[in-house]
Design brief:
single chain; Rossmann fold; five-stranded parallel beta sheet; 5 helices; 27% strand; globular
């Protein structure tokens, strides 16, 4: 599913990381750990096809098969939860029934007609997870997905982790997913 050899990323004279190798088979779970500023987010953005490496070779699945959740939920704050997911469903050519199913699954059905700007950070994160899963991606790339989630939100996230799909997860709480990891990559 993912094959990376000698990946490096630079921004001008600033080196973010170098010589990163990853080989992740379908159904694998890559746990990425490291201090803030170590390059985790940059690597995940590359693996989600949102950025290009400066060096190295990279084989990834097609962009439309990747679901990415970054530090921000990447939803429109001025739209309602329902409007957000309906928009993304249209962009992904996904049946609208899936929108309702995800809103229900993530405990947002009752708030579906409220503007996202009125949501707590945890509710926004749940909506971001809905957006990420909407098109049923085969590869999930999640950067600090537990951010701002309450106990129920964490249970829902654990359900996502338990699904049979390929995942790359960066977290400051590796103990939450350590048992799922088939591979680990630690940034200094």
């Amino acid at each position: 599913m993912i094959v990376a050899r000698g990946l490096a990323k630079r921004y001008g004279d600033r080196r973010v990381f170098r010589d990163v190798d990853v080989e992740l088979e379908a159904g694998g779970f890559l746990l990425v750990t490291g201090a803030n500023g170590s390059g985790k987010t940059t690597l995940l953005r590359i693996l989600a096809r949102l950025a290009a490496p400066s060096a190295g070779s990279l084989e990834l699945p097609a962009r439309e098969t990747i679901g990415y959740l970054g530090h921000e939920p990447l939803v429109y704050r001025e739209l309602t939860a329902l409007e957000n997911l309906a928009l993304f469903a249209q962009l992904y050519r996904v049946e609208r029934e899936r929108v309702g199913m995800l809103l229900e699954r993530f405990g947002l059905w009752d708030a579906r007609n409220e503007r996202v700007s009125t949501f707590s950070r945890g509710m926004q994160q749940r909506l971001g997870l809905c957006r990420t899963l909407l098109h049923e991606p085969t590869l999930l790339v999640l950067d600090e997905p537990a951010n701002a989630l309450d106990a129920r939100g964490l249970e829902l996230l654990d359900d996502v982790f338990a699904e049979a799909r390929t995942m790359v997860v960066a977290t400051h709480e590796p103990e939450r997913v350590e048992q799922l990891a088939t591979q680990r990559l630690a940034f200094a």
